[in-house]
Write a structure and sequence with these properties.
33% of the residues lie in helices and 18% in strands. By secondary structure, it is α/β, with parallel strands linked by helices. The protein folds into 2 domains: 164 residues, Aspartate Aminotransferase, domain 1 (Alpha-Beta Complex), CATH 3.90.1150.10; 251 residues, Type I PLP-dependent aspartate aminotransferase-like (Major domain) (Aspartate Aminotransferase, domain 2, 3-Layer(aba) Sandwich). Helix 1 crosses helix 10 and helix 11 runs parallel beside helix 14. The longest helix has 20 residues. Bound molecules: pyridoxal-5'-phosphate. The site of pyridoxal-5'-phosphate has 14 residues, from helix 3 and helix 4.
């Protein structure tokens, strides 16, 4: 076996930013799935917003490293040294991908949820947190568990300008003390892009800090922490084509350095000794990453994220965005031709979006519709409230606290569905998947389902007979 040489950053060719590019190679592009009506078809993965397929490049990088896998920060052997170097290089690659400032820290976590819970755990005492109720639950919920924190949930704005104005008013009236704003970069429900730079400016005007939930933005657009002037960024590997169980929290070191470690254990502790009174003296690491990465780090997950960062950077976000815009335009035009389809939107039809779109179909329960897309057309989308219950219920015209009616495939014609269908795509999506999706929606709306469906374990599934 030859000695492993890790993937490194390579220069990008200069290209015309208006050029689109072919889809990036992803695993599963040639998977075929059975249809309930007979035969099989190539699977159209249109649920990237939940988890995107692995980039082939990520898979290849991980496979090349796998034989050299070893413990990180805790071994004298060659493979431990190599793995430690790889882990730290991955940190540097992520810092470059996010345009981190010199004193920013990159912490590897399990996911965006984990990253935001970590930040919630290090808030200074008495922090006031401001968050719109349109957020994903990962951004909405961690703060109320933070000791001594006071959370203000702002009502979902109907325009980007309203978002900035509402934040301005809320922060203006807030008492002195540490403040944090948490905002999403792109909605996991509507795909709409939030005015992050302006929200950051508003936050900073009032002495607040801001964390960007980039779970849905980072796979689609460059996220530059310095240019956006946000204090922290969180994202997940599995939505960035790197499904190996890692996520990232990057940003300002001070709150992280001053707080107790997120997890107590090996790696976070520098020395531990018994005291004469029988207790333990623990000296925690002051290095921010070590302090909050207790336990054996997920080196494969970190390396996979770094590999994805390199792949997207080298492909060129300008070209990926150009391609995504073409697919989005085709998708929206196709759905606009079906009068029974209503696309959900907070900011209106003209707002900037990434490749995530939710809709309802008149007379259909969304779970039934999504089940038929899968069983009869081999198309994988998501149905439900997308872990953003208050937002989806608001967009569907129900009160945010209204209980959802998920799963029943028997909505009477014209009945309002209390859940929605989400279609989402990205760098690996071929044009054909969008064309097939529009055609399947058109046919389903026109002709109805060809099969019977029933609810099993809360899911809508084809009946066996
Ligand atoms: N934030 C947003 C906007 C999301 O869409 C998601 C997941 O869908 C999350 C946070 C949580 O990500 P994860 O499940 O990887 O922790």
């Amino acid at each position: 076996m030859t000695v492993f040489s890790p993937a490194t950053d390579t220069a990008r060719e200069s290209r015309d930013a208006r050029d689109s590019c072919p889809p990036l190679p992803v695993l599963g592009h040639d998977v075929r799935v059975p249809l309930v009506t007979g035969g099989e078809v190539g699977y159209a993965a249109l649920d990237y917003a939940a988890s995107a397929p692995a980039l082939q490049r990520v898979w290849d990088d991980v496979a090349a490293y796998a034989p050299y896998y070893g413990s990180v920060h805790r071994g004298a052997g060659y493979l431990s040294q190599l793995s430690t170097d790889l882990f730290e290089q991955s940190r540097a690659t992520v810092a470059a991908f996010l345009g981190c400032r010199p004193d920013d820290e990159v912490i590897f976590t399990r996911s965006t949820t984990d990253s935001l819970n970590l930040l919630a755990a290090v808030l200074p005492a008495g922090t006031q947190v401001f968050v719109f109720d349109s957020e994903h639950h990962a951004s909405l919920l961690p703060w109320q568990r933070a000791e001594g924190a006071q959370v203000t949930w702002l009502t979902a704005p109907r325009t980007p300008e309203q978002a900035v104005a509402a934040l301005d008013v809320a922060l203006h009236g807030a008492p002195k003390g540490p403040k944090l704003v948490c905002v999403t970069g792109a909605s996991n429900v509507t795909g709409e892009v939030w005015p992050v730079r302006k929200l950051a400016a508003a936050a900073h005007r009032h002495g607040a800090r801001i964390v960007l939930d980039a779970a849905q933005l980072a796979p689609h657009q460059p996220v530059d922490i310095a240019a956006l002037d946000v204090d922290w960024v969180a994202f997940s590997g599995h939505k960035l084509y790197a499904p190996f169980g890692s996520g990232v929290l990057a940003g300002r070191p001070d709150w992280l350095r001053d707080a107790e470690p997120y997890l107590a254990g090996g790696g976070a502790s520098r020395t531990v000794a018994r005291r004469t009174d029988g207790g333990l003296d623990v000296e925690w690491h002051t290095s921010v990453a070590a302090r909050h990465e207790a336990g054996s780090p997920n080196v494969i997950g970190a390396y996979a994220i770094a590999s994805a960062c390199r792949a997207l950077t080298e492909a060129g976000f300008d070209r990926l965005i150009a391609r995504e815009r073409q697919l989005l335009a085709r998708l929206r035009a196709g759905l606009a031709d079906i009068p029974q389809v209503r696309v959900l939107s907070l900011f209106g039809a003209d707002s900037a979006r990434v490749g995530v779109l939710s809709f309802v179909v008149d007379g259909w329960n969304s779970s039934h519709f999504a089940a038929a897309l899968s069983a009869e057309y081999g198309i994988g989308v998501r149905d439900g409230l997308f872990c953003a219950h208050p937002l989806v219920r608001t967009l569907l015209g129900g009160e945010p606290d209204e209980p959802g009616a998920c799963g029943a495939p028997d909505a009477a014609p014209g009945e309002r569905s209390l859940n929605a269908i989400r279609v989402s795509f990205g760098a690996g999506t071929p044009d054909e998947h969008i064309t097939r999706f529009v055609s399947a929606v058109t046919t389903l709306v026109r002709d109805g389902a060809q099969w019977n469906y029933r609810t099993e374990n809360g899911r809508c599934v084809p009946s066996r007979d």
